[in-house]
Amino acid sequence: MVLTTKEFREDFSKTFEGLYAFDLSEASPIQYYTALGNYLKVYSADNWSHTNQAYLEHQVKQVYYFSMEFLPGRMLKSNLLNLGILDTVRDGLREMGLDFEVIARAEVDPALGNGGLGRLASCFMDSIASLGIPGNGNGIRYRYGLFQQKFVDGYQVELPENWLRDGNVWEVRKENKAVMVRFGGQAILSEDPDGRLKPIYSQTQNILAVPYDTGMIGYQNEVVNNLRLWSAEIPPEEEIHYHTIADREKVNQITEVLYPDDSNYEGQILRLRQEYFFTSAGVQSIVRYYKQMVLTWQHFPDKVAIHINDTHPALCIPELMRILLDEEGLSWEQAWEITQKTMSYTNHTILQEAMEKWPVRMVQELVPRIYQIIEEINQRHIDKKLPLYTPELTYRTTIIADGNVKMAHLAIIGSHSVNGVAKLHTEILMHEVLRDFYQMYPAKFNNKTNGITQRRWLHLANEGLTKLIDNKIGTAWKTNPSELKLFKSFANNEDTLAQLAEIKLENKKQFAAYAEKEMGIELDPTALFDVQIKRLHAYKRQLLNALHILDRYLKIKDDPDLDIQPRVFIFGAKAAPSYVYAKQIIKLINTIADMVNNDPAIGNKIKVVFVENYGVSLAELIIPAAEVSEQISLAGKEASGTSNMKLMLNGALTVATLDGANVEIRDFVGEDNIFLFGLNDQEVYAFYENGTYHSRDIYDSNPRLQRVLNTFIDGTIPGIETEGRVIFDSLVQYNDEYFVLKDFESYVEVQEKVDQLYQDPMAWNQKSLLNIASSGPFSADFTIKRYAEEIWKTDSQLPA
Ligand code: 26Y
């Protein structure tokens, strides 16, 4: 049944009156938005409950995607799109004299994640539902999301992100589905009447885990899956034991804030609490659901797949073991077989410092029974592998070592599948980082290159481009993104190329309007828009970008009449609050921005825009306006990257090292349509092995680079005495950990080529078009199909 605008207006007005009991004409955007959200919840309620019923009735296998982080972005538009009523609602609101865009912007963007890993989880939720795969998300309902970033005098300042201030229309609190999670105390094993060892608990702290469910609406297929986020509460029957506010606070604290660090592991007990809290709650609720099906335990892996998004939820493994052993009375062997068959794990990082390992004492104290189980998993692993491998190799793979529990080892040993997130990354895992495990379990390892949902990142974010593509190749690409390649046949069509340029210009104007309004920076929309948007981290090398800007700046200062392609350098990045060096780089770039933007000799030749509080919503504004995509991490460090895919899909040309998924971008689009530079991963490894990298020598021997670096310490850039010195020293004195100086030369060279190509708009637009047309393989739909077929063994429930 198609919804008419008339029906929409009537139902919407009713919803509004029911909620607010006053005349619709005098409401605020947030009130309209809330009413719209409520309307949509009702509109999609049947689909939600039917999907649920169908899964249960047919006892289909379901996947549970466990992730500490989800970054869904605003949901109003994407829900409308997926329900197939975006245009109707927009038109209906217009007929009522309301501005849909203003209403949509009233929604908060829930920042329940740090970056790539969290956003990936949300793209996956969209694809799982859109493919009709029975799937659920499982995570934490943080009371405060990732901090809001402000710049004060160029420094990052963090403010709390109270994303629930106006309520959350999409969630449904499900008190009736709450479970109890046990912490601390003692677990003493003793024999039960059947002679089995079972734990007797004493002095534990019991926390109530209350789920909040959000419908994950599939793309025009009537499927609504579930994202379940858990919140920690005091169990009502235990209220009496909580005497002080501090006691109560300790409970609320568990789901109070998201840890804002995504690259530097710290053994904080609260984080371990969070990890056990949501994994235990999630696994318990899965088991409870399974028990409705009256099947033997052996069939558990035929009905349930649990996916562990990085090691953060790896306690799923001992938790499922605990339930099967202690509560369901299975033998160790049975429980272990079920657990391994159920679990799969994705690794997202190569950086050693981001690998989770928990002090044994901490695990013992916080979850004593879980620790016992981990110990036994470890011992059995050693007993099984020692006869087969050298003691050295075996002991390198233990879960417990040097007083720590190594979460990656637990995740690998307890899962049947281990995957990396790009071809190169998986290779590096197999042959470098996890090579001992690869030798032991070659069959577990596989690659699943990341993907993105083209629904949010093209259809919604870039309506102009969507229309153009629809006009040229039809709309089938929306459900089958490989169809995007049909767009290639327009690569020589001047008309199409001109339209493409027109759309890009329009998107650039939109961003320029934002920069003007929010930051007071005036941009020339015909300048080249160059974009680097990602977390701030030394390995991602925002510094290299900064060096290039300074190099240009000096050139223009030397010769103010220099004929050079005007460029706008756009940055968006948050730094972990404790990551001092990253914050110094933010200050540096902000100071460069001030200097350059206000220098009349520079004019429009360079503008630098560092947007505050980068997140999903800003990405949706910036990406469609981008012409150059900066993917310049040191080769071998970025697991995959996903902004690289979004930018390509929106027609940006990539400046890249051969790192992460950039390698596959090159393969799909061809060497001629990407700007490659710098060391490759093998060359980087060779330097590590030989110890022959000396950044000081490069500084000494390259006068151009020397001059750029000296601006950090010679007063050229005013007001960065401290930061300038630290950064200078890190690059020159302390041997430049991420080879910034080594790659500088080839980076500026390739940037000159970028400028040259830009002088020929048709050639540029052609490459832009080829990038769009070659980006289909990076659809998360394909990635999810592979996860479903090769790892989860879940089937789409859509009619074939
Ligand atoms: C343990 C704690 C310090 C921690 C918290 C968050 C460690 C890591 C993370 C998040 C990591 C992350 O976002 N990794 C990114 O995952 C993306 C999706 O796979 C990749 O595209 C990207 O290269 C990788 O950096």
UniProtKB/TrEMBL annotation:
Reaction equation(s) it catalyzes:
[(1->4)-alpha-D-glucosyl](n) + phosphate = [(1->4)-alpha-D-glucosyl](n-1) + alpha-D-glucose 1-phosphate
Name the InterPro entries for this protein.
Glycg_phsphrylas (IPR011833), Glyco_trans_35 (IPR000811), Pyridoxal_P_attach_site (IPR035090)
User: Which domain of life does the UniProt lineage start with?
Assistant: Bacteria
Q: Kindly list the GO molecular function terms attached to this UniProt entry.
A: 1,4-alpha-oligoglucan phosphorylase activity
Which of UniProt's keywords are assigned here? Carbohydrate metabolism, Glycosyltransferase, Pyridoxal phosphate, Transferase
Q: What is its EC number?
A: 2.4.1.1
| Cofactor(s), by name | pyridoxal 5'-phosphate
- Please explain the role this protein plays, according to its UniProt record: Phosphorylase is an important allosteric enzyme in carbohydrate metabolism. Enzymes from different sources differ in their regulatory mechanisms and in their natural substrates. However, all known phosphorylases share catalytic and structural properties. Allosteric enzyme that catalyzes the rate-limiting step in glycogen catabolism, the phosphorolytic cleavage of glycogen to produce glucose-1-phosphate, and plays a central role in maintaining cellular and organismal glucose homeostasis.
The UniProt family comment states:
Belongs to the glycogen phosphorylase family.
Q: What is this protein called?
A: Alpha-1,4 glucan phosphorylase
